[in-house]
């Protein structure tokens, strides 16, 4: 996975493009992204990047309540995903669609706030 960072970065353009798609991170994953938009990246010397064809981890919470072993295994998988990627995709979580839409809108508002230290 590569990131789209560099001197040609224009945060305002990336924010508008993200807002226009109205799909957020889920839309990026569904579209099969090849680059992580700079608006989602916080550079750090300690973050290792460069896996070109890695799959974003998916956590299926529908199986997380099948017993203590499943719960412990899910917790370990989440820990591994966070160590390697810093995020993961969650499916079969049971949240209402309207709540998810509110979260997506809140994320849009958050990223639209800007950060003078970003990229």
Automatic annotation (TrEMBL):
Keywords: Iron, Metal-binding. Residues 56-114 form the Non-haem dioxygenase N-terminal domain. The keyword Nucleotidyltransferase does not apply. It comes from the Eukaryota. Transmembrane segments: none annotated. Pfam families: DIOX_N. The keyword Cell wall biogenesis/degradation does not apply. SUPFAM superfamilies: Clavaminate synthase-like. This is 1-aminocyclopropane-1-carboxylate oxidase homolog. It comes from Rhodamnia argentea.
